């Protein structure tokens, strides 16, 4: 059982390696990708089945790696990473289905490598191992944006790489420094999460070191001021890459703050709470305004995703039991909803070669099924009652009101802002008379339905029966809150 | 006596081979490929004997009655010998196709290369400053001539002139430094100088400090540290590719061999004098090298510029040694290996490509490379990632050890600067990756040509990755851990 995480991480890249060794044809490659991702999906469900919500870190696998510096191959899963794991493994097969007719080899290889990168980052508990996955997952994204993207894609690919690596280099420095401090106090090297977490740092060092980590995560999320790569990168990415950017990689930034920010710097984070709350509140409004004004659908949902991630971060920083539950729940449900909407935007692009709102209109008349799903996902992003997003946002907003009236009001503004841009966008794309572009709009085919139905059903299920899912992670979150002395 | 002869056999073989090749200069039976093959065989035999020596872990002065304590055979020197020999062999093997494609590689080329390797080996063994100087000059003179070997290309003699004028001046400075040190200590033997300094703790050793500084300046010039870097890019650009490879890899390793020996043993008591200035030079090298690498359009020049940055990284660890962390020397050795693998790999791909078409490769020439040569492009990507210090390659491990050593010895700001420079380097390395993959090319995909060059490049790419992942999954392949242990053992044999 303790090999199961290793299998989950490495099966995708092994599939890619196998494919490249036999120079697989497209059908074989497609088969490989789908089979490996389904296998990983199955494994993660087995994992969830045997997962004990009260037991902390589980399925731990430790192997020596670079012994001179005590770096280990250390993977494990707890409630936090389980949520992300389930989300990633669910989205990947759907993305492969979306790529069904894709004829370019590199596309498939990059996606498989990317899956290994993100899974590894979620599951690894050794700092250097985490850094390895955190960096390597950037490379496929770089190639996919630069190679298969559109409009200024090469420039934007370079920009996302340079900006995110700037953050990760800061994080690397912090990691090395903490490893050294551990060596200084214990006499041997270790970079494992537990050891570093047991380190007690003096406040000044700790503030500086924490800044390195936070910078990396802030750029990945991205917080306002660190966001300049986001809209261009989303705008010029191909659809699978943009889904991964928005649904998975941005969430990894949140995961990083949760795991490493609260895990390693629980007392130091106090100094950062107020600025981060302010950043998050600014982000909520700033991105929402951008989203309202944006004429390009993909960039609009880039900004909308920024707005929601700010809300998630806000919930995380308010540090009470409602907002933490809400945040983790929103991580998962927003990933599903934004995967759905971004895939559908990709479908629009495939059909009419344009995703500018002004070109579209009247889709509902020619493609009713498409219009139904499109509005469902868009509304679930806006927090339609009955979908998971509503539950999660409600929890965060309740928690925000508990924290302070002003923060609560600002947090509640996200819902209003989201509803504003979603409804206006729906009105302009789906309704009215069909434009010349959308006149022959093809409705959803069988494969399209196969991709979208699971996402939609799951969103409904998370909305109607949240307790089914929250019981997975609620005990662990309570425990974490108690550990940082914030359980009231 | 006989055992002493056995100990110096690797060097003897190399120098005899060089002389034989020189005498066969006009032999009509030997083609370039044959000469290359003979050279490789000579190096290979020498390497085998060195492996035997390494296993026996000798630690003696040889020919004491002739040289006194001037010539030592120890684990440290033997390990470096193996690195030179292996490096030179790899360079020659990879360039097999390149030699065939150019008409200016005649008999002397290989003889000179062997003389160069001989000089480097003596340099690693020299335990006395004058021998070190002579060895350094043997190696340098060979390299000077090799740089100017392509007389048809005006850039090549120009590069040689630039290099030789500056290089000889620096050689004179080294000699002056030796004289000053001798003036105070009355000896040029490394151990004796140490004894002298240690036994006179209350004098301020002005002559030794100044003399040592002059010697260090020479070495900094040779590795291309920033105030002394003016020659680097032009010389790399003008030199034939195989020579640029030797300079970037083998010769640089040799320079660090003598640096470590002098620096670790000799001047330990007077580190404090240079510590500050060395740190400043390190910072300048890191920043200046990055600027130089950033503005280049030609791949060869970019690699030359980045070689300055890599020298800077190694100087970070040199600073840590100055702060008392002697094991940082093993970080330098590891870094040398990692840099060797990735830079020779990258240069190797350049030489493989230019063997087919006669032109200087610019970034533009790599447009669509990923489609014309998918396998070579993957390898080039691996080498670029390794040079950039991307995790999962050996370059990351090298940087990891360097930065950790800096933090360990308290040079947090230099480590921070190093991390920042590593970030800057992402730009110029990723630029090449972007060029290779981002642009569709009309050219057809070409078959992967299996020959010595490509096979070796493939092997090096494999080593770059396994060294970085370092799992030791595959037995007998050097992993990050294993090599670090070897390096530590070698340094341990030096520092007693």
Q: What is the assembly state of the chains in this entry? A: heterodimer
Count of separate DSSP helical elements of chain A: 20
Spell out the helices and strands of chain B N to C.
HHEHEHHHHHHHHHHHHHHHHHH
Number of DSSP E strands of chain A: 2
Q: What gap, in angstroms, lies between the N and C termini of chain B?
A: 26 Å
**Main pleated-sheet profile of chain B:** 2 strands, antiparallel
Task: Using the CA coordinates, give the radius of gyration of chain A.
Answer: 22 Å
Query: What pattern of helices and strands is seen along the backbone of chain A?
Result: HHEEHHHHHHHHHHHHHHHHHH
Poorly predicted runs of chain A are none
Q: Tell me which protein chains meet in the greatest interface and how many residues each side has.
A: A-B, 34 and 33 residues
Structural commentary:
The complex is a heterodimer of chains A (488) and B (496). Chain A has a domain at 268-488. In chain A, helix 3 runs parallel beside helix 14 and helix 13 packs across helix 17 (388-403). In chain A, a hairpin with a 4-residue loop joins strand 1 and strand 2. A two-stranded antiparallel ribbon of chain A has the order 1-2. The longest helix of chain A has 34 residues, at 153-186. Chain A has 20 helices and two strands. With 488 residues, chain A is mainly alpha-helical. The mean pLDDT of chain A is 88. Chain A is globular and about 70 Å long. Chain A has helices spanning 4-21, 26-50, 79-98, 105-123, 127-136, 138-148, 153-186, 193-197, 203-220, 230-236, 239-264, 269-293, 297-318, 321-352, 363-366, 368-382, 388-403, 405-430, 446-464, 467-483, and strands at residues 58-66, 71-77. With 496 residues, chain B is an all-alpha fold. Chain B has one domain (2-494). Helices cover 76% and strands 1% of the residues of chain B. Chain B contains 21 helices and two strands. Chain B has helices at residues 2-23, 32-56, 64-67, 75-94, 96-101, 107-125, 129-147, 155-185, 190-199, 206-223, 232-238, 241-266, 271-294, 299-322, 328-356, 369-372, 374-388, 394-408, 412-438, 452-469, 480-494; strands at residues 60-61, 72-73. A two-stranded antiparallel ribbon of chain B has the order 1-2. In chain B, helix 14 (299-322) runs antiparallel to helix 19 (412-438). Chain B is globular, with a radius of gyration of 22 Å. The chains are: A mainly alpha (488), B mainly alpha (496). The A-B interface holds A 65-69, 73, 106, 128, 131-132, 135-136, 139, 142-143, 146-147, 153-154, 157-158, 161-162, 165-166, 169-170, 172-173, 176-177, 179-180, 183 and B 385, 390-392, 396-397, 400-401, 403-404, 407-408, 412, 415-416, 419-420, 422-423, 426-427, 430-431, 433-434, 437-438, 470-471, 480-481, 484-485.
């Amino acid at each position: 059982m303790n090999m199961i995480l290793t299998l989950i991480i490495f099966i995708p890249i092994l599939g890619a390696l196998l494919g490249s060794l036999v120079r697989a044809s497209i059908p074989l490659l497609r088969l490989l990708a789908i089979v490996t991702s389904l296998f990983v999906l199955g494994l993660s469900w087995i994992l969830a089945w045997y997962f004990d919500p009260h037991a902390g870190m589980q399925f731990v696998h430790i192997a020596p790696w670079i012994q001179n510096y005590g770096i280990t191959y250390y993977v494990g899963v707890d409630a936090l990473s389980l949520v992300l794991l389930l989300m990633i493994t669910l989205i990947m097969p759907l993305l492969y289905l979306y790529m069904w007719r894709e004829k370019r080899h590199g596309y498939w290889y990059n996606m498989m490598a990317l899956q290994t990168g993100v899974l590894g980052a979620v599951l690894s508990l050794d700092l250097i191992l985490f850094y390895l996955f955190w960096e390597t997952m950037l490379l496929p994204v770089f190639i996919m944006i630069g190679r298969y993207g559109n409009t200024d894609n090469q420039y934007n690919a370079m920009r996302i790489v340079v900006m995110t690596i700037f953050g990760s280099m800061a994080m690397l420095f912090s990691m090395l420094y903490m490893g050294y401090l551990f060596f200084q106090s214990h006499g041997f090297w270790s970079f494992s999460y537990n050891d570093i977490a047991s380190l007690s740092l003096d406040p000044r060092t700790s503030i500086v070191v924490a800044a390195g980590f936070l910078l990396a995560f802030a750029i990945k999320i991205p917080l306002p001021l660190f966001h300049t790569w986001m809209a261009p990168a989303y705008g010029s990415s191909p659809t699978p890459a943009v889904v991964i950017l928005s649904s998975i990689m941005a969430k990894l930034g949140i995961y990083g703050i949760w795991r490493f920010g609260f895990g390693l710097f629980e007392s130091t984070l106090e100094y950062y709470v107020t600025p981060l709350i302010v950043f998050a509140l600014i982000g909520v409004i700033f991105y929402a305004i951008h989203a309202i004004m944006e004429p390009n659908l993909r960039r609009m949902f880039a900004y909308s995703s920024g707005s929601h991630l700010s809300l998630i971060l806000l919930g995380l920083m308010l540090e009470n039991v409602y907002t933490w539950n809400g945040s983790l729940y929103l991580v998962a449900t927003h990933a599903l909803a934004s995967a759905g909407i971004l895939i559908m935007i990709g479908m629009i692009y495939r059909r009419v070669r344009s995703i500018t709102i002004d070109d579209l209109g009247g889709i509902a008349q020619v493609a009713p099924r498409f219009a139904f799903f499109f509005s469902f996902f868009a509304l679930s992003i806006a927090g339609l009652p009955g979908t998971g997003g509503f539950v999660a946002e409600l929890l965060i907003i309740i928690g925000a009101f508990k924290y302070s009236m002003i923060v609560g009001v600002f947090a509640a503004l996200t819902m209003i802002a989201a509803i504003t841009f979603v409804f206006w966008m729906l009105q302009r794309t789906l309704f009215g008379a069909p434009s010349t572009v959308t006149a022959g709009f093809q409705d959803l085919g069988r494969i399209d339905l196969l991709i979208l139905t699971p996402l939609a059903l799951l969103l409904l299920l998370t909305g109607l029966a949240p307790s089914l899912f929250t019981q997975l992670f609620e005990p662990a979150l309570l425990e974490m809150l108690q550990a940082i002395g914030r359980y009231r | 006596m006989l055992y002493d002869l056995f100990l110096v056999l690797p060097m003897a073989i190399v120098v005899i081979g060089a002389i034989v090749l020189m005498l066969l200069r006009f032999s009509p039976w030997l083609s370039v490929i044959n000469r290359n093959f003979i050279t490789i065989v000579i190096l290979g035999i020498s390497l085998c004997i060195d492996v035997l020596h390494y296993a026996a872990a000798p630690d003696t002065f040889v020919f004491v009655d002739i040289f006194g304590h001037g010539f030592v055979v120890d684990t440290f020197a033997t390990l470096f010998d193996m690195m030179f020999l292996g490096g030179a062999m790899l360079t020659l093997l990879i360039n097999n196709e390149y030699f065939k494609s150019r008409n200016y590689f005649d008999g002397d080329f290989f003889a000179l290369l062997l003389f160069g390797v001989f000089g480097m080996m003596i340099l690693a063994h020299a335990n006395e400053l004058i021998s070190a100087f002579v060895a350094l000059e043997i190696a340098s003179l060979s390299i000077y001539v090799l740089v100017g070997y392509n007389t048809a290309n005006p850039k090549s003699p120009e590069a040689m002139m630039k290099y030789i004028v500056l290089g000889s001046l620096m050689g004179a400075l080294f000699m002056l430094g030796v004289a000053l040190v001798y003036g105070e200590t009355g000896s040029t033997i490394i151990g004796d100088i140490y004894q002298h300094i240690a036994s006179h703790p209350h004098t301020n050793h002005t002559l030794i400090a100044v003399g040592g500084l002059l010697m260090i300046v020479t070495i900094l010039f040779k590795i291309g540290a920033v105030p002394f870097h003016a020659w680097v890019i032009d010389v790399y650009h003008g030199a034939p590719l195989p020579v640029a490879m030797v300079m970037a890899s083998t010769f640089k390793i040799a320079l660090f061999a003598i640096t470590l020996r002098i620096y670790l043993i000799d001047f330990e008591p007077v580190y404090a004098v240079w510590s500050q200035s060395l740190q400043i030079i390190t910072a300048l090298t890191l920043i200046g090298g990055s600027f130089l690498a950033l503005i280049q359009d030609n791949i060869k020049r970019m690699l030359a510029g980045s070689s300055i940055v890599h020298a800077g990284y190694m100087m970070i660890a040199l600073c840590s040694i100055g702060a008392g962390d002697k094991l940082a020397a093993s970080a330098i050795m590891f870094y040398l290996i990692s840099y060797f693998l990735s830079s020779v790999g990258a240069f190797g791909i350049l030489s493989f490509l230019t063997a087919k078409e006669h032109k200087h490769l610019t970034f533009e020439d790599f447009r669509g490379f990923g489609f014309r040569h998918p396998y070579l492009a993957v390898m080039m990507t691996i080498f670029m990632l390794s040079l950039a210090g991307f995790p999962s390659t050996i370059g990351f491990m090298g940087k990891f050890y360097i930065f950790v050593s800096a933090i360990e010895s308290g040079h947090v700001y230099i480590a921070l600067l190093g991390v920042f420079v590593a970030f800057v380097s992402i730009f110029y390395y990723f630029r090449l990756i972007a060029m290779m993959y981002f642009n569709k090319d009309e050219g057809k995909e070409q078959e992967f040509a299996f020959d010595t060059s490509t096979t070796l490049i493939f092997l090096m790419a494999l080593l770059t990755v396994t060294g970085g992942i370092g799992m030791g999954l595959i037995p007998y392949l050097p992993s990050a851990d294993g090599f670090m242990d070897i390096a530590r053992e070698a340094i341990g044999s030096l520092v007693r």
